[in-house]
Design a protein that fits this description.
The chain is an alpha+beta fold and 255 residues long. It contains seven helices and five strands. The longest helix is centred in the middle third of the chain and has 27 residues.
């Protein structure tokens, strides 16, 4: 019997190390791809940087400690000072200043209304949407008409001067009617056209003041479809026939 061959030397398994590293990197890649579908772009960028660091020779993925998530700062921490004792953010301070200026403008308009004896036909109200000036029908127009008398035109000119501000604001003019159909023989076939005509005519008269910016103005007719009160009584219908001028806060403007 031939002597058995000497037992072969142990097979070299050094290839397992790079193979395991490749598997580790593949695992990390799949984790990154999965995370990319779950996080926003900024978090994905942070993960991508960590992965690049790994490829460049950082600590092995399986040896790494648990990651610590960092959160993006959404707004600066307000500073408390003598000028800002409540620690309000710059945005909050800007909004307060904006509405303070609208309040000052409301006082000017109210003074004008009182001097001209136009209350309650002219009314102001400071709302979350801005300063609202409501002008009743008898001030500007006669029933069923969008033509303005000489006295109404004078009032419009005076109001235009009150709308001038250091930084121009957006001005939205809205026409409203009651639900009584207009005379078919008249100039306007429906309350839609009548309300729009009133808003446009008033806007055009305001914009004769060259200190106002036409790009900041718009006019809309709502007809009878946004009543303030019931149209069942003459008093209610009179309340609903109106032109409204909304002076927008800067914070609500969309260029």
């Amino acid at each position: 019997m031939k002597r058995k061959k000497k037992h072969e030397e142990h097979v070299d398994e050094s290839w397992l190390i790079p193979y395991a590293d490749i598997l580790t990197l593949l695992l990390a890649l799949f984790i990154v791809l999965f995370a990319a579908s779950e996080v926003d772009s900024k978090k994905f960028e942070a993960i991508s940087q960590a992965f690049n660091s790994e490829l460049e020779g950082g600590t092995g993925v399986l040896e790494q400690q648990a990651a610590v998530e960092t959160f993006e700062e959404t707004s600066p921490i307000p500073e408390v000072s003598e000028e800002n004792p409540a620690g309000k953010s710059k945005e909050e301070i800007a909004v307060e200043q904006d509405f303070k200026e609208l309040g000052d403008l409301q006082e000017k308009v109210e003074t004008y209304i009182k001097e001209k004896g136009l209350a309650p036909r002219l009314q102001t109200k400071l709302t979350a949407k801005g300063l609202l000036l409501t002008i009743k029908e008898g001030v500007l127009y006669t029933p069923g008409s969008a033509d303005m008398s000489a006295e109404a035109q004078k009032i419009a000119v005076e109001i235009s001067n009150l709308l001038i501000t250091d930084k121009p604001r957006f001005i939205y003019i809205e026409g409203h009617t009651d639900n009584v159909p207009v005379a078919q023989s008249g100039k306007y076939p429906s309350n839609w056209e009548l309300s729009a005509g009133r808003a446009i005519n008033f806007m055009k008269l305001l914009l004769e003041n060259d200190q106002l910016d036409p790009k900041k103005f718009s006019a809309t007719g709502y007809g009878e479809f946004q009543p303030l009160t019931s149209n069942k009584t003459e008093k209610g219908r009179a309340e609903n026939r109106r032109v409204e001028v909304l002076i927008s806060p800067y914070t609500e403007e969309k260029e």
